[in-house]
Amino acid sequence: MESENKAPKRWKKWLRKYRVVLLDETSFEERFSLVLSRFNVFVVVGTTAVVLVISTILLIAYTPLREYIPGYASTYLRRSAISLDQETDSLLTQLSYQDAFIRRLQAVMNDELPVDSLGGATPPAGWNPERLKPSDRELALRQTVAELDANAKGSVDPDKELRMPLKGTLLKGQRSSRREFGIQISGQDGDNVVAMKDGTVLSVEGTPSLGFVVLVQHSGGALGRYGNLAKVSKRAGDYLRQGDVLGALGEAPEGDQPYLSVQYWLGGESLNLEKLLGF
Predict the structure, then answer these.
(1) What mean pLDDT is predicted for residues 242-255?
(2) Is 14 part of any domain?
(3) Among 62, 121, 144, 213, which residue's CB has the most CB atoms within a 10 Å radius?
């Protein structure tokens, strides 16, 4: 009986009303009052906590904020990674096929592939290896092409045809073995860069912050590339005379010296400007 009486009393404590009153300290005038119970306070606080937790979970789960969770990767990144992995596998397979084909072709051209490796096929009747040798007409054509290439390359006179694009000293020479073409000439910020030879501007690429690159089709079939320009005074299609100003030399990073990067190509070969300009 005592336990049954205690249970209702405890429940009544949760429903007992309490009044919260705000009074003015000077006049003791009642400003605000509120009737509460322990049950009301528990319900309001619990509901608020549950709403905040659910809202936080939804906010993180359905907004880009979930990408800030350590170890989480978005669906787009996962799909991109899978797609790139598949493309890489296909490219590696294709590359292996091409590499095998090129090695096989080189072996055939260098006469390093025995006849037996061609699947055991026997040469046809009357076949003679002498037929694979070039004819006299083909040898004459090769000689003519070689002479034309030699004349085109030998027509460049460093003293008569090319002009120094920038007044400065050689900072870095050409290293064709390391795939470093062209030379670098040191100068001062704002120095004028001029055309080494007559020609036509093919393109102007770049930005003021990263620098401009000017491609010039010079007379005689040569192609000049002038890089690291801060300002460009010519546009694509403009005709140039030898010595015309292309632009101004750009700034160098802090601690470095401004320089002009220039290349000169002729017949598909990068010529050594270090020798042509007399450095």
Answers:
(1) 80
(2) yes
(3) 213
